[in-house]
Design a protein that fits this description.
Chain A: It comes from Actinospica acidithermotolerans. Chain A: It is a multi-pass membrane protein. Chain A: Its main location: membrane. The structure holds two protein chains of two kinds. Chain A is mainly α. Chain A has a domain of about 375 residues. Chain A is built from 21 helices and two strands. Chain A has a two-stranded antiparallel sheet. By secondary structure, chain B is an all-alpha fold. Chain B has two domains: about 90 residues, Helix Hairpins, CATH 1.10.287; about 80 residues. Chain B is about 80% helix and about 0% strand. The longest helix of chain B is centred in the last third of the chain and has 80 residues. Chain B is rod-shaped, with a radius of gyration of 52 Å. Classes of the chains: A mainly alpha, B mainly alpha.
Chain lengths: ~550, ~190
């Protein structure tokens, strides 16, 4: 069983190597390899999830080197769950993009993005898996870097004007937060002489409180940037919408969740008695409220969804802030629901773009009559995001609400109110999209395009207008092909994700029990620490 | 703490400071420089964190990894800066969309403010001109009225003179012959 643990990282990396050897011309072979690897990833993660649930955390010292030198990989219930969900989502998005690619053979005259997209995508998958598996702080950093480097390439793929400009912001924010991460590692290493998470957990309990606080605040800041928690979230809605639809989908679903995962992991494991509850309460509430207010103000579907993403990451931080078993369990349930739902919504946006050539819903109209299938595909995840019963979003939010009420503190009640307001405003934002894009009479939204071409006096304002609405013509400055029908794979992948989110609803009982167990395990760090030390740490 | 590790800490700190200062810039090339300097400063700090003993393999491994990552990132960012320069002639990182929206709104507000002041000035000018023309018109009307009054007075005077002259003729005729008794008085003017 232990042999399986490194595979979710290794398989994609090997596949990337093989792909480069094969060269870009053997498209069928390339496709086959990508699909096989990600299917294998999904199966392996699911097996690991079940095993970790049955027998406790699975720990591997890579190459049998002992802990401080060797790399520790750990699968416990939390990381197993995230791993399984993320590999499933990655697989679905891969199917979607493969099908889109086969449908538009003319992607690029040089063929470059074709040759680069899939290897980079697999690297992204490897980075995500490594971040979930990492048992020490430095390996977590490496996992993040692999994932981020891949995401930089995917973000700027094609090298168009809009993508370069928006990508530069994204990359600089990512690079700056990585610097902070290195700083956190340096401080942790100076204070404790180790970067192994289990060892850190033991030693941080006895070091000077000031040193502990420094490590804790640095880590919170780093992961808050990666997870786009409010004061550090401005980069996200600005950069995500310019990327191609499948890329945005997988970023939105997974990258921020990796940040949230690391935040929850480090805070529960390393600082169980020093929760920065007031800080977390504040940022959770602000993320939720300000994020959703931002969403309400948007006219572009992708930007709107990006803002709801910022807003709903607040729910996950909220679970951590309250910190009871029920709250964390709710947060985990919400995390997997949100990964699936947010990815689905971006994929549906991709389908809308494919049909209409835009995702600007002041220009979209009458989709409910023109494309009823799209309506259904959008409606289910949108209602799930807003938390309408009986969908899984409602169940997870209910668990969080109950946890907040059970906590009973003033902060918890403020969060409870913020949660309700956010859900209501999410519903409002979704209804707005629905009323504009789907329910208006066809043709009513046309003619708005001219308004976008306002040119203002002043030296650079023309360029400002052009790049601000660069996504209005083509996506991210790149022309996209449109068609009345949808390729089977794109539709199939979207439907599959919707079915998965419905499965969360149908099997909510067993999943909630599982997340309860995972939360209990998180709140009892000795399980993790003992499992790592039993395998041969420094202690 | 040995002098050597103090030196390391100060060097590292200084490098991070310089790097962070560069990171405040808007040009991608400067950002890359900042990233490299700050990243290497942090590597020095990791070295300081591990102490100077030869035995600490872990710090060296971590630093090497971090160096490789920084190198890759710098290469990618330089390519990005080059591409940006190719496309736009500059390598500036733009402000985000909401910021630009706010800036545009502020610009619009400024323009509207300018327009308002200009319109107010124009209106004041118009009002002054209107006042002036009204005053002039009034003056002219007064003059006209005066002239008319004078004319009328003169006309009255002439009529009076004429009437008196007629009366005088009539009286003279009456004294010449009494046969013309029935003749009505012609052109008797109004009262003098």
């Amino acid at each position: 069983m232990k042999a399986l643990v490194p595979l979710p990282v290794l398989l994609p990396l090997f596949a990337v190597g093989i792909k480069f050897v094969l060269g870009p011309r053997r498209v069928r072979m390339q496709t086959f390899i990508s699909l096989t690897v990600l299917v294998a990833d999904t199966v392996i993660s699911t097996v690991l999830l079940v095993e970790a649930d049955r027998h406790g955390p699975i720990v591997v010292q890579v190459g049998n080197f002992a802990a401080p030198l060797g790399i520790t990989l750990v699968v416990d219930r939390f990381s197993g769950l995230m791993l399984a969900v993320s590999s499933t989502v990655t697989l679905c998005v891969l199917l979607y993009s493969q099908s889109q690619r086969f449908a538009d053979e003319n992607e690029d005259e040089t063929g470059a993005p074709l040759a680069i997209f899939y290897p980079t995508y697999l690297l992204l998958a490897a980075g995500i898996a490594d971040s979930f598996l990492a048992g020490d702080l430095f390996n977590l950093y490496v996992g993040f870097e692999v994932m981020l480097a891949a995401s930089y390439v995917l973000m700027t793929i094609g090298g168009t004007d809009a993508r370069i400009r928006h990508g530069a912001v994204y990359i600089m924010v990512g690079a700056a937060s990585s610097l902070l991460f290195v700083a956190a590692i340096a401080v942790a290493y100076a204070a404790c002489g180790t970067v192994n998470l289990a060892d850190l957990a033991v030693r941080l309990a006895v070091v000077a409180p000031a040193a502990r606080l420094a490590v804790q605040v640095l880590l919170i800041t780093v992961f808050a940037v990666k997870a786009a928690i409010f004061p550090l979230s401005a980069w996200l809605p600005d950069s995500y919408p310019t990327a191609p639809a499948p890329v945005t989908a997988v970023f939105a679903g997974l990258l921020t969740k990796v940040g949230v995962y690391s935040l929850i992991r480090t805070q529960t494991l390393l600082f169980p008695h020093n929760r920065q509850a007031p800080l977390l309460y504040t940022v959770a509430a602000l993320s939720m409220i300000i994020g959703i207010l931002g969403a309400v103000a948007q006219a572009d579907l992708k930007r709107l969804l990006s803002f709801t993403l910022v807003s709903h990451v607040g729910f996950l931080v909220l679970g951590l802030a309250i910190g009871s078993v029920r709250a964390l369990s709710g947060a985990l349930f919400y995390a997997i629901t949100h990964i699936t739902v947010q990815t689905t919504l971006f994929l549906v946006t991709g389908l809308i773009e494919r049909r209409e050539g835009t995702a600007d819903f002041s220009r979209l109209a009458g989709l409910a009559r023109l494309a009823p299938v799209l309506g259904l595909l959008f409606f289910i995840p949108a209602m799930n995001l807003a938390g309408i019963p009986p969908l899984s979003g409602f169940i997870a939010k209910l668990a969080l609400l109950q946890a907040a009420a059970a906590d009973g503190g003033v902060g918890a009640y403020i969060l409870l109110a913020a949660m309700l307001v956010t859900s209501l405003l999410t519903l409002y934002a979704m209804t707005k999209v629905w009323a504009r894009a789907f329910w208006r009479a066809p043709g009513e939204g046309a003619g708005k395009a001219a308004e976008r071409q306002i040119v203002m006096p002043g030296s650079d304002s023309v360029a400002v207008v052009r790049s601000a609405y660069g996504a209005a013509r083509g996506i991210g400055g790149r022309r996209i092909s449109t068609s009345e029908s949808y390729p089977v794979g794109m539709l199939g992948a979207t439907v599959a994700l919707i079915l998965i989110s419905l499965a969360y609803t149908v099997w909510a009982g067993p999943i909630a029990e599982y997340t309860e167990r995972a939360a209990a395990e998180l709140l009892n760090p000795s399980v993790y620490i003992n499992a790592v030390h039993a395998i041969g740490g420094t202690h | 703490m040995s002098a050597a590790s103090l030196t390391l800490i100060f060097t590292g700190g200084l490098m991070v400071t310089c790097g962070v200062y560069q990171l405040m810039a808007q040009s991608l090339t400067r950002l890359v420089l900042g990233l490299i300097v700050a990243g290497n400063g942090l590597n020095v700090l990791i070295l300081a964190a591990g102490g100077l003993g030869p035995a600490d393999v872990l710090t060296q491994a971590m630093i090497l990894t971090a160096i490789v990552i920084t190198l890759g990132m710098a290469a990618f960012l330089l390519a990005l800066a080059y591409r940006s320069w190719q496309l736009n002639g500059d390598d500036l990182v733009q402000d985000d969309v909401e910021d630009r929206r706010i800036a545009r709104a502020a610009h619009r507000e400024d323009l509207a403010g300018d327009l308002r002041t200009q319109r107010a000035a124009y209106r004041a000018d118009r009002r002054a001109a209107r006042e002036a023309s009204r005053a002039r018109k009034k003056e002219l009307r007064e003059a006209l009225r005066e002239a008319r009054r004078e004319l009328r007075a003169r006309a009255r005077l002439q009529r009076a003179i004429a009437a008196r002259a007629e009366d005088y003729e009539y009286l003279e005729e009456e004294t010449e012959s009494d046969t013309d008794f029935e003749r009505p008085p012609a052109n008797r003017g109004g009262p003098a």
